[in-house]
Amino acid sequence: MSERRRAVVDTLFRFQSLFGLIAVFVAAVIFSPSRNGELLFLSSDNLFNVVRAVSEIGIIAVGMTFVILIGGIDLSVGAVLGLAAVGSAVLLVDEDFGVLPAVLLVLLAGLVFGVLQGMASAMLGIQAFIVTLAGLQIARGLARITSGGQGVAIAYGDGPGEAPVAFSLLGERTFNGLVPIPALIFLVVAALAIAFLRVSAFSRHVYAIGGNEKAARLSGVPVTRVKVAVYGICGLLAALAGIIHAGQLNQGSPNDGGGYELDAIAAVVVGGTALSGGRGSVVGTVAGALLLGVLNNILALNNVDPNVQLLIKGLVIVAAAGLQRLRPDQ
Amino acid sequence: MGDGDGPLVEMTGVSKSYGGVRACRDVDLTLRAGEVHALLGENGAGKSTLMRILCGDITDHDGEVSLAGRPVRFGSPVDAQRAGIAMIHQELDLVPGLSVAENIFLGREPRTRYRTVDARRMVRRTRELLAGTGIALDPRRPVGELRTGEQQLVAIAKALSLDARVLIMDEPTSALSTAEVDRMFTVISELARAGSGIVYISHRMEEIGRIADRATVLRNGSVVAEFDARRMTAREAAEAMVGRSVQTLFRTRGHEPGAEILRVDGLAVTPRRARPGRREPAGVTVSVRRGEIVGIGGLLGSGRTELLETLFGAGSRGRWHGTVLLDGRPVRPRSPRQALRLGLAFVPEDRRVAGLAVNHSVLANTVLSIVDRLAVLGVVPGGREAGAARRVVDELRVKLRSVRDPVGTLSGGNQQKVVLGRALLTEPRLLLLDEPTRGVDVGAKAEIYHLLGAAAGRGIGVLLASSEPAELIGVCDRVFVLRGGTTVRELDTTGSSEADLLAASMGGGAAAEAIDAAATQGTVR
Fold first, then answer.
1. Whether residue B223 is found in the same domain as residue B97
2. How many beta-carbon contacts under 8 Å exist across A and B?
3. By three-state DSSP, how is residue B491 classified?
4. B1 in a domain, yes or no?
5. Contact A271, A284 (CB under 8 A)
6. Which of A134, A299, B98, B133 has a CA positioned 20 to 30 A from the CA of residue B206?
7. Of B179 and B99, which is predicted with more confidence?
8. Could you list the residue range(s) of the whole structural domain that residue B377 is in?
9. Residue of B nearest to A207 (CA)
10. Among B524, B456, B508, which Cα is nearest to B261's?
11. From residue B364, how far is each of A204, B66, B226, B349 by CA, in Å?
């Protein structure tokens, strides 16, 4: 293979998920139903809806990317989302917290939950899969205990038992009613994570641990500390997604977020991050999340049977993972 | 067996390319029944590719391979094994969780009447097999518990159990002790006498002189020389391999060592949890002065690696006894990170396991130890990062296309230089090296010695653990010999021979025997 061709192939594979996103996007345009000669899929309302729909999973997937980069996994994120949603609702409605204190407290709780899981995994040497599987049960249990097993409805107003109106912004749109707030938060989180992963010393340590943990330790990387921090970040972002979830639905339901961990992992994998760790990017994850979102959207627009939708999604995930096996350096 | 006098294996016009890179170019190679044929060449010269073609691992090559006069084309290693060709890879393909016996009979376990595995027969046959090769191992022990050297012996036993008439050995002795090497050579000689052909790949000249009949040298994928192995000199072979005349392999001494950097006195470690196969320090005394290269000798399992790991904060957790002084101050690093801060740096034994993230770029691997020092408020300035990597890569003359290429695409010697470069970038006071030239070709070896000499010249203290007596005697100023985790001897290398070192390593009556054995085989100068 010539030098030039190699470079082209390398680029194609490096940005595989972006090209995949473009391909799915083009397909969506082609298969889009139209009304009054306008393609439904391409309407700005619809496009921003796609981003809004993936924002919760997307934010979780950003955190999951860090965890998977160090060769770990976090199965607790969906349950943490549920716990955070319940926590937000209870703090705002029953405890009369202001928006900022409530949000900060819930984020802190998510961070602590993640840090504890990170410590159990990194210091006690229990496999992340098992620690976070246990974490999933614990978070779900806490959510049900806190809420009494029922969804906690959020009513807005100034009176007791009512949440501050500011919290309802999470269900609104900004920029002339164009951009949904959750979509904006997702894009900001993603941009910060992309920048962080590109320039920070911390990210070099993250990749090194995923690439070869032993070598990383012997090279002076504070492996335990980095791992704990990564699980902390993941828990924090899951809590953020939970707050958004509560704001969008105007309630905190303890059973919400079930299966989100798998959707997030799917976005990460479709985005080209290796489950074995050490290789991948947040750019890929964002593209992966959007790809799955566009796919969902176009299938829904065409009224495809939801069960068939699942089937198609499954095939796309396998295809994406299969394509990565073709990388020349594999 | 071969038909009449024809060669057992004949490879004619064999070529193989990877992308644009020609790994093998029009190679002719014959292997006769009953001979040990050494294959020499630098890393990347095409030895492994050629052998992988022979053992059916690579199938899309040009040229002919014939076995006992009949042209063959294997579809897979299993095909080749059925035809009687077995290869022992450098990277051992053993399953750590399975026992010695289960590994040896993996995929062809003896069965009972009911098609279940006949474990008793398997263990018995393994015991016979091991006894035949003089290996004292319990067939029921999990392979993962064995030391690397013992694992290597299991891999050899496995190859033997295939009753191969062609046996390919890729650096089989790299992790063996001297006694184990001797035992293995006996086995090889017997196999050859029984009519097998053996291809023997090694970087150790003295071994080739002892065991091989013929030697073929590859360079850049082509055969460049053939020698009578018994008469070949190390210099001839080295020159054929590198294609230029090799100056001196070992560094030239001549500078005065300075103040004492490291003083270890009676160091012993009582681990909190004993790990099988580990030899913790049990009374180690070592000292290193500024600008000095000090060796750690001793047999496999004498505790060389464990000593370096302990000093670097990467050893077993547990209680320390004795003193470790760094520049006169007592230290006890509890993690590699702390050790690096104290001015220690470490080049571990197995670069693929503990040294490198092979899929990551040369850049990322080189600067890993200093990224947080380069960072300003947690942000790494990309330019300074790349600059540091380029500087060290140039200084160490690492051969590469771009620092962005995965480090795994470099040859072994260049990979080793990347690990060394990372250590040097931390500007250490004391450099700890564990087998820094294992699996590295002659040219790169000489360069690494030169780099160590240069580091010492700048006042860095170097502590080098090695299993190669020639390396210790040739490179070091002094050598401390360990036996059973204890320092048993300090040797001044001027005026000491490899035999002295060997004798001290083995101790007692065994030493005399070893020297006798070595003398009869002509390795004592």
1. yes
2. 88
3. strand
4. no
5. yes
6. B133
7. B99
8. 358-425
9. B360
10. B456
11. 7, 45, 41, 20
- Best to test chain B binding among A69, A203, A219, A273 (most B CBs inside 10 Å): A219
Is residue A147 within 8 Å of A254, Cβ to Cβ? yes
Q: Which of A23-32, A184-193, B235-244 has the highest mean pLDDT?
A: A184-193
Q: Say yes or no: A1 contacts chain B, CB-CB below 8 A.
A: yes
- AA identity, residue A86: V
Contact criterion met (CB below 8 Å) for A78 and A57: no
Q: What is the pLDDT of residue B20?
A: 56
**Boundary (domain end) residue, out of B405, B425, B445:** B425
**B145 token code pair:** 């518990």
Q: What is the DSSP string of A143-207?
A: HHHHHTTS-EE--BSSSTT-B-GGGGGGGSEETTTTEEHHHHHHHHHHHHHHHHHHHBHHHHHHH
Q: Which of B337, B354, B379 sits opposite A200 (nearest CB)?
A: B379
The answer to whether residue A222 neighbours chain B at the CB level (below 8 Å) is yes
> B236: which 2 tokens?
């001839």
Q: Of A267, A265, A326, nearest to A295 (Cα)? A: A267
Alpha carbon of B408: minimum distance to chain A alpha carbons (Å): 10
Q: How far, rounded to the nearest angstrom, does the alpha carbon of residue B111 sit from its chain's CA centroid?
A: 37
Among the partner residues B348, B364, B369, nearest to A207 by beta-carbon distance: B364
Q: Quote the tokens at residue B307.
A: 């000593």
A3-30+41-325 under CATH 1.10.3470, yes or no: yes
Instruction: Tell me how far apart the alpha carbons of residues B149 and B145 are, in angstroms, rounded to a whole number.
Output: 12
| A134-168 confidence digits (pLDDT tens) | 999 999 999 999 999 888 998 888 878 888 888 88
Per-residue confidence band for B471, with pLDDT thresholds at 50, 70 and 90? confident
Domain annotation covers residue B254? no
- Nearest-Å Rg of the Cα atoms of chain B is 24
Name the residue among B336, B360, B374 with its Cβ closest to that of A218. Answer: B336
Q: What is the pLDDT of residue B495?
A: 79
- Whose tokens are 């410590």? That residue is A119
Q: Do A219 and B380 touch (CB under 8 A)?
A: no
